[in-house]
Amino acid sequence: MAYTLTCADTGAPCPGNFTTEGKDELVEHVMLHAERAHPELAGNPELGSMVQTLIKQV
Ligand SMILES: [Zn+2]
Predict the structure, then answer these.
(1) Ligand 1 center–CA 45 separation, angstroms
(2) Quick one: which of 1, 3, 15, 46 has the most CB atoms within 10 Å?
(3) Structural domain boundaries enclosing 34
(4) Number of domains observed in the structure of the chain
């Protein structure tokens, strides 16, 4: 089982897609990506909970 998140689901025009074995690892990847690619999202205090709702199990 793996966890996946599609960056475009946040509403950002971004082709980013992340898949990891662990949920915590995925959140870590997404947060790093947000800081680099989406500083406006990274500064949003809602980002953490938004990321949680966008994670899908595959
Ligand atoms: Zn992105």
Answers:
(1) 17
(2) 3
(3) 3-57
(4) 1
Enter the DSSP assignment of 11. Answer: T
Give the type of residue at 5.
L
Tokens at 50, concatenated: 């938004």
- Kindly report the pTM of this predicted structure: 0.90
Q: Are 20 and 26 in contact (CB under 8 A)?
A: yes
Calculate how far, in angstroms, residue 57's C-alpha sits from the geometric centre of ligand 1: 19
Q: Which residues pair with 5 in a beta bridge?
A: 18
Q: Which helix (H) or strand (E) holds 47?
A: helix 47-54
- Which pLDDT tens digit goes with each residue over 10-49? 999 999 999 999 999 999 999 999 999 999 999 999 999 9
